[in-house]
Design a protein that fits this description.
Layout lengths: L1 E5 L11 H15 L3 E7 L5 E5 L2 E6 L20 H14 L6 E5 L17 E4 L4 H7 L7 H13 L2 E4 L3 H9 L8 E2 L20 E5 L8 H14 L4 E5 L4 E3 L2 E2 H8 L8 E4 L3 H10 L2 E4 L8 H8 L4 E4 L14 E4 L4 H12 L2 H19 L1 H17 L1
Parallel strand pairs: 1-2, 1-5, 2-4, 5-6, 6-7, 7-8, 9-10, 9-14, 10-13, 14-15, 15-16
Antiparallel strand pairs: 3-4, 11-12
Helix pairs in contact: 1-12, 6-7, 6-10, 11-12
């Protein structure tokens, strides 16, 4: 069976987030199950075609049609340039590569122009987290209206749907004012051999946050909790790993956090951006990860933390409660308040043996249910079922 993934995110060139990780992991899993796999992704500097780990990867530069049309250049920022370039590449290679299925995310409508082609196989849209959903959660419902329109077109024209979490399914269709359609839920896979525990690195009272610094991720709650946590836990250190973003005009989230936390505690805070592979040692050093998000689909940072044997404190939003069993392999932050963050973190740090046991259970769960081999087997069965229809 031949499958083509269309995703602007794909490592190493465009290793920007969870979509890149998912496509990379599932593509490897499909190759292991005998599939012929092609990926169309975005190029950063020049276009290329390479064969990597049994996967054919086409890199295309975004092609903004509006830049070439008279009087239309002013609208170029609204044109889905990668989607257009990806569709052109797909049309070219489909003449010789008769794919059985195309898969792409709904986010940013990467497969938009493929849906309008007359010669194409069925298109599967996988839910990750649409730009419309993100803007809605951030209280900016009209921020990317052209992208919202494109995402809706992709959802309307898709032949099949899959999602890593049950939580996102109904919310997605409701947000786009669409009737619900059948969606198959299969979790995201993770390389559990890569994200493996190393107990020798573990540090007491080390709190770890991984992700962009932004309101959606709940970093304001961590910031407001830190002064009290630092006072009550003299050895506490908190590490933030992820890109900084604007808090408000002229102030970034990193600066906002430093403004909230008293100066005497600044030497106990660490901010950095590291490669995904470098994250492994940070997960292993932490005694507790924290993800107080206001919404998540099925975050890789949670899977990665648990896979290394580091339990996480999470808010019960989106797909995260589908992964964590409270008190057994993680902790639940009961609401979106600094007080809830404080009590949950203190619960973990005052019971180090409980954290250790939760970490062991977390690792066992991820290996059993979310490893590449396990998820790829389910996905291969699903793909073959679609192809037989």
């Amino acid at each position: 069976m031949k499958i083509c993934y269309i995703s602007r995110e794909y490592p190493p060139e465009t290793d920007w987030g969870g979509i890149a990780t998912y496509v990379h992991e599932i593509a490897q899993g499909m190759v292991a199950h005998g599939f012929e796999v092609t990926v169309i992704s975005q190029a950063v500097q020049k276009e290329s075609t390479q064969r990597v780990d049994g996967i054919t990867v086409h890199r295309v530069l975004p092609d903004n049609l509006f830049e070439r049309l008279p009087l239309m250049w002013r609208f170029k920022q609204h044109f889905p340039a990668f989607s257009y370039a990806a569709a052109r590449k797909f049309k070219e290679i489909y003449k010789t590569e008769q794919f059985d299925l195309v898969e792409s995310a709904e986010c940013d409508a990467d497969s938009l122009f493929v849906h309008f082609q007359t010669k194409k196989p069925p298109v599967l849209v996988r839910f990750h987290l649409s730009k419309k959903f993100i803007d809605h959660i951030n209280g900016q419902p009209n921020k990317h209206k052209s992208t919202h329109w494109a995402e809706r077109q992709v959802l309307k024209r898709a032949d099949y749907f899959s999602s890593p979490s049950r939580a996102l399914v109904d919310r997605q269709f409701e947000l786009f004012s669409m009737d619900s359609r059948p969606v198959t839920v299969i979790p995201n896979p993770i390389d559990t051999d890569l994200f493996a525990p190393d107990p020798s690195l573990k540090e007491d009272d080390h709190l770890l946050y991984v992700g962009r610094l932004q309101y959606l991720k709940g970093v304001d709650l961590i910031a407001e909790a830190l002064p009290i946590l630092c006072e009550q836990r003299p050895k506490l250190r908190c590490t933030f790993l992820g890109g900084d973003t604007d808090y408000k005009e002229g102030v970034t989230w990193k600066r906002h956090i430093l403004n909230i936390v008293p100066d005497q505690f600044h030497n106990r805070l660490h901010f950095d951006m590291v490669s995904r592979r470098s994250l492994i040692q940070w997960y292993n050093r932490a005694s507790l990860a924290i993800f107080p998000s206001r919404w998540e689909n099925f975050p890789y940072v949670l899977l990665e933390s648990m896979s290394t044997g580091t339990p996480a404190a999470i808010t019960a939003v989106g797909g995260m409660p589908e992964i964590v069993t409270p008190g057994k392999d993680g902790l639940i932050i009961p609401d979106h308040t600094p007080e809830a963050v404080i009590s949950t973190v203190l619960e973990g740090f005052t019971n180090p043996e409980q954290l250790r046991k939760m970490g062991q259970h977390a690792r066992d769960k991820i290996v059993q249910h979310y490893g590449i081999d396990s998820v790829a087997q389910s996905m291969a069965q699903y793909y073959r079922g679609l192809s037989a229809q």
